[in-house]
Amino acid sequence: MKLLFLSPNSEIGGAEAVLIEDMLALQAHHDIHVILPAEGTISKKLKGTKIIVHIVRFDWWIATHSLTFIQKIKFTRGYIISTLKIKKIITNISPDTLITNTIATPVAAIAAALASVKHIWYIHELGKEDHHLSFFFGEKKSYYLINKLSNRIITTSFLVQKKVAGYIPDNKIETIYCSVEIPNSEQFISAENPYKIALNSPLKLLITGRVGEGKRQEDAVKALEILIKKYDIPAQLTIVGDRGGEYSQQIKDYIQQNQLSAFVDFVQFTDNIYKYYQEADFVFICSRCEAFGRVTIEAMKLKKVVFASDAGANPELLGNNERGILYQMGDAEDLAQKVAQTMQHPIQLQQISQRAFEWSWQVCNTKTHLDNLLKTIQNA
Fold it and tell me: Does the keyword Transferase apply (predicted)?
């Protein structure tokens, strides 16, 4: 098959990592093209592969702010220009199916309709709940168009499917979990369950991902403080992720004001993230609302016990405490208490770790993901 994908971003994020994994796996037996809004880390990652990159600048139809009537007219003009450019690409390469890897823009979907090419919408985000993003033309009208401009819709979790099904017939939607590949995973997975031996002292805690309000690194920092000062548990927190801006500064100020600098390490985001998982006792997922949770699956695949907020897709992935520990989102006291209690029960830690490990590798693997993806594409 010849497949044409559209990515909403030129830089690698969670949804973009899924797209890259899909395209790299599919290129062996399929002709793969991708539309990007600009050159960036994605195009750099794809250099030397068989994947053909097309650059077309396009606007989103969601944002954290609303538009005036005049701005809507200007954006509509931009959509028309971008749509015609994408239609030209479709005409030139004649793909069997076009896949839009986001709800953020309708341009590829409209172009596919104009060119009479099958279109699949692959939705990785909730919008308002996870990123405070709202549709310029309203949620009801936008999902009406998403329905009309797609042969099938793929969602990244049942949480997302539940929201989409509020606007679109459920039989048109397919939830496909991401594969979440871990290169050279055998280097980072211990043969024995890591919780059969004593936990580190100080206890090693990890939170990874872009430092921002939605990821709520503040919960992790405050829980660390409570563990040290209230429970007298020596602990060290590593925060891995790109940082900058007002929220990041607030975190740093809190750390300094509460004499926590010696207990917190900041690490710029790195491709070699897995060594930090390997060193950690527990992984924190403190997000306000994750549509899926790539970091959660990474930790589970590496046999690490995850402590996650009871929001977004976390309860779904953790099986309501079967494969990890949930705490009340925004309540650092509850998080610290759950850590302090759970670390006293090594058998429970071993059981949670093993269940998470087995489930994540069984459900979130390349073969299962690609089989489901190709089946959906072929049946569109």
Answer: yes
Report the alpha-carbon distance of residue 314 to residue 293 in Å, rounded: 7
Name the residue range of residue 257's domain.
185-363
| Sign, CA torsion 182/186/187/189 | positive
Shared domain check, 192 and 173: no
Q: 375 vs 19, 123, 370, CA distance in Å?
A: 17, 17, 8
What percent of the residues of the chain are helix, what percent strand, and what percent coil, each to the nearest 5?
45, 15, 40
pLDDT in tens, 222-262: 999 999 999 999 999 999 987 768 999 999 999 999 999 99
Query: Tens of pLDDT along 162-216?
Result: 999 999 999 999 999 999 988 777 777 777 788 877 788 899 999 998 888 889 9
Bridge partners of 152? 120
CA angle 208, 231, 324 (to 5 degrees): 40
Answer left, alpha or beta for residue 293, where phi above 0 means left and psi between -120 and 50 means alpha: left
Residue pair 220/239 in contact (Cβ under 8 Å)? The answer is yes
Q: Which residues pair with 135 in a beta bridge?
A: 62
Alpha carbons 141 and 203: distance in angstroms, whole number: 50
Asked if 160 and 199 sit in the same domain, the reply is no
The residue with tokens 């069997």 is 96
Instruction: Give the C-alpha separation, 38 to 166, whole Å.
Output: 33
In this prediction the pTM is: 0.91
| Same structural domain, 193 and 211 | yes
- Give the DSSP letter of residue 200: P
Please tell me whether residues 170 and 218 are part of one structural domain. Answer: no
Helix (H, G, I), strand (E, B) or coil at 158: helix
Do residues 214 and 182 touch, judged by C-beta distance below 8 A?
A: no
Q: What is the CATH number of the domain that holds 274?
A: 3.40.50.2000
